[in-house]
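User: Sorry, what's this?
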Amino acid sequence: KLDSEYKSLLSEASAKESANDIDGAIAKYKEALTKKATGKEALDKIKELEAKKAALASAAQNDALFAKLVGEGDAAFAAQKNTEAKSKFEQALKLKADPAVSSKLDNVNTALQAEKAKEAEFLALKTDGLKLATEQKWEEAKTKLTAAKALKLDATIDTKLAEIEAKLKVLEGQAKLDSEYKSLLSEASAKES
């Protein structure tokens, strides 16, 4: 009688397993062990199903972590924190290959290259502008530094542009005085003759 109950419980457990009711199947296999404590088939199935349950839980955790990293990467990219976005997408791709995330990573890498190019252009304009200011080529320096400022805010550039504006006003005032002086000299010279 116990043997037939054992087999009946194994059959019920198997049906639950087929229906993907892992917890229900484990419970039935454990119940079968009350009928036959040394039931190898029930013991083996319990081990197998508990391992399967753990694997599913681990996969679910991986999926949750993957989704979290992708979400954080999207948010960082939207906020133009491209280095952070790259890190998040790379971590997600280590968990699971995903063409959509690979595409996002490509977009971030493109943005990082653009940032690098923009930074190089900024530094070149700033360096040239400061050099021209040292050479007292005020208009050219102003043009370069204004272009650099359009790419990126920079306190050094703001200070130098203010100095250049002041120099240009002084030079403009001096040129006006020189012009008036020459005009007066011309008038005086004409009256003498």
Summary: Helices lie at 2-18, 22-35, 40-78, 82-95, 99-134, 138-151, 155-192. The radius of gyration is 39 Å. The longest helix spans residues 40-78. The chain is about 90% helix and 0% strand.
